[in-house]
Amino acid sequence: MLSPAQTTLLPPAPAVSRPAHGPAADLHAQIRVEKPGPWLQFSSAMGYEWTRVDLPIPRLPEEMHGLRLLHLSDFHARSWWDPAYDDLIARVAADPPDFILFTGDFVDHKNDHRPGLPVAKKLFSLLKSRLGTIAILGNHDKAVSHGHAHELNVNLIDHRRVVLPVGSANLELIGLGGVDRIDVNLAFLHTIGPKSPNSLRVILSHYPDNIRRSQFLSPDLYLCGHTHGGQMCFPNRKPILRHDSLPHRLCSGIHRAYGTWMIANRGFGYSSYFQFRVFCPAEVIEIRLIKA
Predict the structure, then answer these.
(1) Phi and psi of 51, rounded to 5°?
(2) Residue 15 domain-assigned?
(3) Domain range for 174
(4) Which pLDDT does position 9 carry in this prediction?
(5) I want to staple 74 with a disulfide (CB 3.0 to 4.6 A). Which of 105, 112, 220, 283 is the partner?
(6) How confident is the model at residue 205 (pLDDT cuts 50, 70, 90)?
(7) What is the pLDDT of residues 6-48, one digit of tens each?
(8) What predicted TM-score, i.e. pTM, was given to this entire model?
(9) Given this model, what pLDDT does residue 161 score?
(10) How far from chain centre, in Å, is Cα 134?
(11) Residue 218 lies in a domain
(12) Mean pLDDT within 154-165
């Protein structure tokens, strides 16, 4: 079963040594895509895009300048091993991020965890970060949530607030319930007070449009998935279907919206019925926090 709504203080993480930051900058993210992905992908995520972003955060604690967060989403694991997993594992191992943050849909089959769970377990046992992997469930993880979530080799924070010390600062992570869009525990969210000084507040949500229901928490960063960026898009990457109620431009990408940085990951996998992507390649997003 999912963990009840709670606040968790985890053991202190090692201090993260970072280079000194430059002068304050406007809130403009510096986004780089190493190599554009193919216009058509079928079954495999090979050729996925690695998006790097330097993200300016107002009042970012000194210890978190340069902190690297790897945002992953929507693997939709099935019974076979995608060769793209090996490539991803090797790249992460070559330069591990400080944290891996995953926003749901470990497996594809909503009602049977058995085909995809062994693959998801293996994958997340091999994806290594310096300080931990934090995750929430997605709408395809219903079967996983019934007694199998503990097998995923991650720290699941659905309906929880987790505080991770980073040096003398705190990384505050809030997990919104993701198995169904209406699962958000508003009563729990309203127990969370204002952000503490010398901290960074990050919300993990499977659904982009739940930002409307949680924006009162004033997060510094809102990470989400679910839409796959549309998965099938026009050549300008405008989604044909977005599976979300926000404007289509917020279906994927990095945006300053609702008073925060909103990052909607296109994900790594494929939805159940369409094993291809059109003008919407699979994606990994590496976030480097910098002082604004």
Answers:
(1) -100, 125
(2) no
(3) 6-10+29-291
(4) 53
(5) 105
(6) very high
(7) 555 544 444 443 433 344 347 899 999 999 999 999 999 999 9
(8) 0.92
(9) 97
(10) 9
(11) yes
(12) 96
CATH of the domain at 111: 3.60.21.10
Per the structure block, which two tokens stand in for 168? 């003398």
**225, 138 in Cβ contact below 8 A?**
yes
258 vs 16 pLDDT, higher one: 258
**DSSP-derived secondary structure for the chain:** -PPPSEEEEPPPBPPPP-PPP-S---S--EEEESSPPPSEEESS-TT-EEEEEEEEETT--GGGTT-EEEEE----B-SS--HHHHHHHHHHHHS--SEEEEES--BS-SS--TTTHHHHHHHHHH---SS-EEEE--TT-HHHHTTTGGGSSSEE-BTEEEEEEETTEEEEEEEPP-SSGGG--HHHHTT--SPPTTEEEEEE-SSGGGHHHHGGG--SEEEE-SSGGGSBB-TT--BS--SSSS-GGGSSEEEEETTEEEEE---SS--SS--EEES---EEEEEEEEE-
Share above pLDDT 70 across residues of the chain, in percent, rounded to a whole number: 91
- Cβ atoms of 269 and 247 closer than 8 Å: no
Tokens of residue 55, six digits:
């993200």
Percent of the chain with pLDDT over 90: 84
Quick check: 57 and 25 in contact, CB under 8 A? no
> Is 114 exposed, middle or buried (CB count within 10 Å of its CB: 0-12, 13-18, 19+)?
exposed
**Rounded Cα gap, residues 56 and 78, in angstroms:** 37
8 Å CB contact between 256 and 67: no
Q: How many domains does the chain have?
A: 1
Task: With respect to residue 95, please indicate whether it lies within any of the assigned structural domains.
Answer: yes
What are φ and ψ of residue 121, in 5° steps? Answer: -60, -45
